[in-house]
Amino acid sequence: MIPRPTIQEGHIWLYHFGITDKIPTITIPLDGEDTHLFDFNRVYQKIFLEASYGLTIDYVDLSLNTYSDPDREYIHQRISSIQE
User: Fold this and answer.
1) Tens digits of per-residue pLDDT, 3-56?
2) 3-class secondary structure, 42
3) Under 8 Å between Cβ of 64 and 36
4) 27, 37 contact by CB (below 8 A)
5) What pLDDT does 47 receive?
6) In what helix (H) or strand (E) does residue 75 lie, and over which residues does it extend?
7) Which parts of 1-84 are beta strand (E)?
8) Which of 17, 29, 51, 78 could serve as 21's disulfide partner, Cβ 3.0–4.6 Å?
9) CA 25 vs CA 12, 18, 45: distances in Å
């Protein structure tokens, strides 16, 4: 793999996950055949907890206009179950 490829020489890997999915662990290519397994979910959970982001969410006035209808419904159901 070329360390600084041009757009034509480079490669891209896309990973998709939904709001109900665990954030994926991906294989990052290194030099030659070497790779590193990186767990994005573990990093996300650590940062979320340590930064106390859950304490800054306004659970009453949620603007969820960027989410699809099924995702909005899922989020509302999760918040309702948390508030009970």
Assistant:
1) 788 888 888 889 888 898 999 999 998 888 999 999 999 999 999 889 988 787
2) helix
3) no
4) yes
5) 93
6) helix 69-83
7) 25-29, 35-39
8) 17
9) 16, 14, 13
